[in-house]
Each structure stands twice: as C-alpha cells, then as structure tokens.
C-alpha cells in the first residue's frame, strides 16, 4: 500500500508539472518549459565518485553562475536548473534515468556519464528522444565512432587520446623499447592497440605485450619478467585503471623496477588517483592528462573558486564538465532557443575558448571536442609545494595530433 | 467473515492483475517494466530456492545469457521481438542442462558455489568475446520490432512485454501447484524419503533447474528489449545476488513474494538514483537487514501469516497447527 501511495504522489506531481508546462509557459516557445534544465548523470557512490561524482554537479553549477553573471538581463532565460542523478555505474539504471530525466524532469541536456556501457546506453536514449547528451567521463571511441549520433557529443578524453599521447611522446623522447601490460577487456584492448600503433609510428618497438586478468590484484608474474626481456624495455606501459592501477604501481615500487632501468608510463590516471596513492608512489610516472588545475593562472583561479565550494581540487573531468555546460548554455544563447536541433547546429564546428581549453573545436563530422592534451609527470613529494600539487606538464600535444581522425563508420 | 472470504486467493489474484495492468500510470513506465522483469526473475529463483531447496547463485548466467541471445537475434535478424525473447529463453534452458547436470547433486553452499562458478565463466566469455557481445561496451541499440508497430514509447512497450511476464508467472504458479511441484517440495523437505518413495530426485532437481533458467531467460530477454541493450552487468554475479535478495525480502517459498521484493528493490534503486545520497549501498543494506530481522518470512510471507492468524481468530474452533504447504523453509 505504501508503494501505491508513493507512486500515486509521484503521478500526481507529474500531472501537475505537465499541467504547468502546458499552461502559461507556452508563450514564446523558444525555451521549452520556460527553463533550461541541465542534468548531471554520474557515479555518486562507486569507483568514479571522486574524479566526477557530486563535485561534477558543483562544476556545472559554477558554469551556470558564470553564464548568468556574464549575460545578466540579456540571458536567453533566467531560469536554469541543475539536477544530479546517480547511475551507480549500471547501464540499465543509466538508461532508465536518462529517459526519466528527458521526459519527466524536462532535462534539455544530460552531462558527464562515466562508464562506457552506460554512456553508450544514454547515447541511444538521446538519439530516440532527440535530446542533447554531452559525455565527459567515458573513454570509448565508439561514442564518436560506429555508435555516434546527431545528439551525442564527446568531451574531454578518450582511449585514443590517452594511448596515442603517451605512446608517441615517450617514444620520441627516446624510449624505444616498450613492455605493455593491459587489462583484458574492451578498454584495455583498445588502449593496447592504439599504444602499439603509436609507438611503432614514432619509431619505437613493443618488445612484448601481455593481457592481465581483470580485475586483478597480483601483477608479479608480469613485473618480474620485465627487466629480463630481450631487448630490455625502457618503459613499462601500464594500461590499467583505478584499483588495478593502484595494485600494479605498489608492486612496481616493491620490485624497484625504476632502479633496474624500467620506467613507468600509465595509460589512464586522474589527480585523485595520485592523491590516494601519494605522490612518492607515483613520482616520475608519465601519462597524458587533458587539464591540470595548477598549469597556469587561469586554471588556478578557477580551481580556487572550485576549492572554495568543494574543499578539494578539481580533476580534469570536473573542468570538462564545467566547460561542456558553459558551451551548451552559450549555444542556447547564440541560437536564442534550447531546441535540440538548433543547439546542435550551434555547437557543430564551434571553437571553444574557456578555462578548460583555448584550442577546442567541436568537430562537425563526429561531435568530438578536439583540444590540446598534455604529457604530464608526477612530482616527487620534495617538489610538492601545496596539497594536490602533484603534476608538472612536460609537453603539449597539439589538438590536431591529440585525437584520432573522424571515423568513417560514424554517420550522424 | 466477509473480509476473510474476500481475502481469498481469487481476490488477491484479481488485485495483482489489476496492479499489473495499471502500474505504468503510477510508476514511470521503464521502471514499471523493470519491476515486471525482476518479478519474474525472482519467481524463477524462488522456484528453486523456496520450492526445491536449492540456492542458486548463478542465475545471472541465464538472465544475462538470454539477454545477449535475445539482443543478437533482434539486432541481426530483424525478426519481431517475441521471437527474439523466446529464442533467449530457449538458450537459457539449453545452457541450464549441462550446468544443472553438474551441480544438482550438490546441496547448500556447495550448490551455490558451483552455480556461481559457472555464472562467472559465462561472464568471462561475454567479456572476452567482443566481436559478438561487444565486451564491456555491451550490445547497444537493440530494436523493439513488432510488425512495424512503434513501441519506442516505454508506456506501450510495457503492455507488449506484460503478456510474456504474466505467462511466465502463470507457468511458475502451475509448476508449484502441479504434482511435479509437490515432488519438488518433498525433495526440499526430506530428500531421503523422496528417494525412498522411488523418485529420481536428481532428475527432478535438474528439470526444476532448467525450468527456472528458462523463466529467468524469458525475464532477461524482455528486460533487454525494454532497455534496448545487453550489458555485462546482466551476467555479473551481483545480478544473481539481487534476485536472491528480492526473494528473501518478499518471502522465500511464496512465489508472489518475489514480486513484492522486486517492486521494493527496483523502486528503491530508482529513488536513490536521484535522492542525492552518496552511499546507496549502505541504505539498501540497512533496509535488507531490517526486513530480515523484523519480517523473518519476508514482507509477503509475514503478511500472509498475519491474514491467516486473523482468519483463525474469527473461526469458532482453532485449527490444529498444521505445517502449511509452500511455507517458508
């Protein structure tokens, strides 16, 4: 009975909302339901909660505040809402929630959505509902490849950017021989393929490449044989993520492989990963990052504002969420409407210049945001001057080289 | 007296049907669809757990395995979705034959562990066989084809999927009420005596296992078509765990209890997704512990006992305390 009671209340509330929307709101028609609703669908309780999670919602709220401050009375609408939802990393929850957000909460945009399977599920919802989806947290290139669609955009990073950036930069820096260990599932396999291609294109060689079980907590078999491979690899490319990466790095340090001349490069790493391991465990490790809070004055100023609200420093994903929300609102402002097709037209080919990137372009062919990426190195704790100050930027990978060419399989 | 008559089985059944028919008016339709699918899945698990005394911890293999097969048929053949769903259910049944054959000899925790191991194998295959299953990305964009009808609105798809779930629940109910079901219960209560009476208990258990798997597959197939994708989540062990949890919440050995458990869990997940709490696991865990402590026989089991107690009070002479058929184990 309680169940029915709650459901009835929800239904009544739904009816009420629908009534309102049909009523006085119907006037101009430029802004649906007289408001713009940005929904942040993310992982608030699982493995991605730190790098995205509830602070991603804060980042989007900051974008709304900055947008309102910039346009004031001239803003296309005063009424901008931000809602957060937790998909628990389950694609079916993401799928139902996305439908509900678009249908019932009048969301005009869904943002974030880490976890590739969840992101692809939401992309399909966006396609059927003809509503906009900007993914920030997922790594799969399929979002802008075979499974791309007109209403889906991919922002921030993907597996190609990570693997290509680190593989090319380090090989050109003199690391000719590589030993790759990758987790044996879609993400790891894609990363490995791109790594191999990039290393070979840059004149290096992959001595050996081993798949590891996923998830896994013991990498000793792979680590112990690394120094004895012939020819001896200069770099161990670890393409694990999250908890697996933490285990691998701990063992890498235990076996003192760096002293044996095998350096460590990592496929995917976030500021929060370094924070949880401590900089000394990772010192000297190189990886591709796509935004760093302490890279310059602009980033730092924004990170200070973020810190004031959340008590922590933003990851690259948080900055990308901010930028995606801001660029969406700017597109609505330029077009004077939040109708999805018009916003898509405004976004396609648009040049992005904000705190996230000064060199961004939203590619019209596949809706991927291309921008500069960075080769980063983890500082030893002796160089860390303040909390969260863990990275130094070694070099910049220009936008044109950082991402893959548009996939011909993508038909918008 | 009128009340006690009204509380009879046909009345409850009619209420259940009515709720199933009007559910999408009160609950968001995709969520209502999830409740249906999980209800059938829970009933299938209860068929083994409550009526045969076998705790399977590997039913994700059948739910998720069927999800992939259903998805593949729908994606590549263009056949109407009922064909795909039935194909998925058939696959689950076929898959259950070797798994069941090798595991029904075991009891208790050993049975649970072996079924879990098989399910993990299926998970591993689904994860590795990327060309077919899509690996971690899953199968996406599965169509809801039914003779050119547009079922993309989840409200309409609910009614397209409902007959499959109701048919599945009817089959489960018939199995429990049939002579075959009685044999299963006797095996549950006293396997030695059942064997002494001449029943080949392993074959009965195997058949129960296969039937349960087929029903799980049916539920998984409808679920996949409803969502438009099949993913690794479906074959992951937490899916098996969730089904068992629904049965325990609703009441083991009640068949309909699983439906209530499914409604509770799915609604709770849906609610928690936007409630703004961070630790959803702690909340579901607490509720689970409370229900297990306060309602030993599950929500439905406890409610049924209360109704029975009321009826007994209304009667002039108290009945002797007989063990009820199909009561909780």
What would you note in describing this structure?
The complex is a heterodimer of chains A (about 400) and B (about 325). Chain A has about 400 residues and is an alpha/beta fold. Chain A folds into two domains: about 30-155 and about 295-370, Response regulator (Rossmann fold, 3-Layer(aba) Sandwich), CATH 3.40.50; about 160-290 and about 375-400, Response regulator (Rossmann fold). Helix content of chain A is about 40%, strand content about 15%. Chain A has 14 helices and 15 strands. Chain A has a five-stranded parallel sheet, with helices on both faces. In chain A, β6, α6 (about 185-200) and β7 (about 205-210) form a beta-alpha-beta unit. The relative contact order of chain A is 0.13. Chain B is mainly α and about 325 residues long. Chain B has a domain at about 25-235. In chain B, about 75% of the residues lie in helices and about 0% in strands. Chain B contains 15 helices and no strands. Chain B has helices spanning about 1-5, 10-25, 30-50, 60-75, 80-105, 110-130, 130-135, 155-175, 180-190, 190-195, 200-225, 235-250, 255-275, 280-295, 300-315. In chain B, α2 packs antiparallel against α3 and α8 packs across α9 (about 180-190). The longest helix of chain B has 27 residues, at about 200-225. The radius of gyration of chain B is 20 Å and the shape is globular. Chains A and B meet through α1, β2, α3, α4 and α6 of A and α2, α3 and α13 of B.
């Amino acid at each position: 009975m309680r169940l029915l009671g709650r459901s009835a209340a929800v239904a009544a509330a739904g009816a009420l909302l629908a009534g309102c929307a049909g009523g006085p709101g119907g006037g101009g028609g430029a802004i649906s339901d007289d408001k713009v609703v940005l929904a942040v669908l993310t992982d608030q309780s699982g493995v991605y909660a730190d790098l995205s999670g509830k602070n991603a919602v804060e980042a989007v709220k900051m974008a709304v505040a900055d947008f309102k401050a910039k346009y004031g009375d001239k803003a296309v609408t005063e009424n901008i809402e931000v809602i957060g939802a937790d998909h628990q990393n389950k694609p079916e929850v993401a799928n139902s929630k996305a439908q509900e957000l678009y249908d019932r909460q009048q969301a005009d945009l869904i943002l974030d959505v880490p976890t590739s399977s969840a992101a692809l599920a939401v992309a399909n919802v966006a396609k059927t509902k003809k509503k906009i989806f900007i993914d920030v947290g997922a790594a799969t290139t399929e979002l802008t490849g075979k499974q791309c669609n007109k209403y889906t955009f991919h922002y921030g990073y993907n597996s190609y950017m990570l693997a290509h950036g680190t593989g090319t930069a380090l090989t050109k820096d003199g690391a000719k021989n590589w030993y790759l260990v990758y987790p044996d599932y879609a993400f790891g396999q894609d990363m490995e393929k791109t790594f191999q291609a990039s290393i070979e294109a840059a004149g290096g060689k992959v001595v050996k490449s081993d798949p590891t079980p996923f998830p896994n907590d013991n990498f000793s078999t792979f680590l112990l044989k690394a120094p004895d491979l012939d020819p001896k690899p200069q770099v161990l490319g670890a393409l694990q993520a999250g908890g697996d990466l933490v285990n691998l790095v701990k063992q890498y340090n235990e076996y003192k492989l760096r002293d044996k001349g095998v350096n460590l490069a990592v496929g995917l790493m976030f500021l929060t990963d370094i924070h949880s391991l401590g900089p000394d465990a990772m010192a000297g490790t190189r990886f591709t990052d796509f935004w760093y809070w302490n890279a310059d004055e602009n980033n730092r100023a924004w990170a200070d504002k973020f810190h004031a609200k959340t008590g922590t420093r933003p990851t690259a994903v948080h900055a990308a969420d901010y930028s995606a929300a801001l660029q969406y609102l700017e597109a609505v402002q330029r077009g004077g409407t939040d109708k999805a097709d018009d916003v898509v037209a405004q976004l396609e080919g648009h040049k992005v210049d904000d705190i996230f990137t000064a060199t961004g372009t939203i590619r019209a062919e596949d809706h991927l945001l291309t921008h500069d990426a960075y080769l980063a190195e983890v500082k030893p704790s002796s160089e860390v001057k303040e909390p969260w100050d863990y990275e130094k930027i070694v070099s910049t990978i220009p936008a044109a080289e950082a991402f893959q060419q548009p996939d011909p399989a993508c038909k918008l | 007296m009128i009340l006690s008559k009204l509380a009879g089985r046909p009345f409850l059944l009619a209420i259940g049907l009515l709720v199933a028919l009007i559910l999408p008016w009160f609950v968001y339709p995709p969520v209502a669809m999830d409740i249906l699918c999980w209800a059938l899945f829970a009933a299938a698990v209860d068929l083994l757990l409550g009526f045969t005394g076998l705790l399977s911890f590997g039913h994700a293999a059948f739910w998720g395995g069927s999800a992939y097969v259903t998805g593949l048929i729908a994606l590549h053949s263009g056949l109407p979705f009922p064909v795909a769903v039935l194909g998925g259910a058939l696959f689950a049944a076929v898959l259950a034959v070797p798994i069941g054959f090798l595991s029904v000899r075991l009891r208790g925790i050993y049975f649970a562990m072996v079924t879990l191991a098989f399910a993990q194998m299926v998970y591993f295959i689904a994860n590795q066989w990327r060309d077919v299953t899509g690996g971690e990305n899953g199968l996406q964009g599965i169509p809801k084809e039914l003779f050119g009808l547009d079922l993309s609105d989840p409200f309409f798809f609910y009614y397209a999927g409902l007959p499959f779930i109701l048919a599945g629940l009817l089959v489960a109910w018939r199995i429990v009420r049939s002579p075959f079901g009685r044999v299963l219960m006797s095996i549950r209560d006293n396997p030695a005596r059942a064997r002494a009476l001449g029943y080949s208990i392993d074959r009965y258990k195997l058949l129960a296992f296969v039937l349960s798997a087929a029903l799980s597959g049916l539920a998984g197939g409808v679920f996949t078509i409803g969502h438009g994708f099949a993913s690794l989540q479906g074959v992951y062990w937490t899916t098996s765990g969730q089904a068992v949890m629904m049965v325990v919440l609703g009441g083991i050995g009640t068949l309909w209890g699983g439906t209530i458990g499914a409604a509770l869990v799915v609604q709770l997940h849906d609610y928690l997704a936007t409630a703004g709490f961070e630790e959803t696991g702690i909340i579901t865990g607490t509720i689970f512990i409370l229900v297990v402590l306060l309602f030993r026989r599950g929500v439905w089991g406890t409610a049924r006992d209360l109704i029975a107690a009321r009826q007994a009070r209304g009667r002039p002479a108290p009945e002797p305390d007989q063990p009820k058929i199909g009561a909780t184990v």
